[in-house]
Amino acid sequence: MYTIAELAKVAYEQFNTAPWAVAAALKRTGREKFTLAEAKSIVAKFLKSR
Q1: Domain range holding 17?
Q2: Alpha-carbon distance 37 to 21, whole Å?
Q3: Cβ(46)–Cβ(28) under 8 Å?
Q4: Fewer Cβ atoms within 10 Å of its own Cβ: the N or the C terminal residue of the chain?
């Protein structure tokens, strides 16, 4: 499990997007920790909605 800050640090490498986008997507869930797979799914949906 990873925190939002940890996932934001690897935003470009893992999500191909900016750290602010990863943080924004994950903060909207109200959770603090995520698996990498969960985070990728949440971020992808967030980016598609923009």
Answers
A1: 2-49
A2: 16
A3: yes
A4: C
- The total of structural domains in the chain comes to 1
Distance CA 37, CA 31 (A): 15
Partner residues linked to 34 by β-bridges: 2
Could you list the mean pLDDT of each consecutive 10-residue stretch along the chain, which spans 50 residues? Answer: 99 98 98 98 95
Residue 14 pairs in a beta bridge with: none
Find tokens 């903060």 and name the residue. 27
Say how far apart CA 21 and CA 23 lie, in whole Å.
Answer: 5
The strand pairing partners of 2, in sequence order, are 34
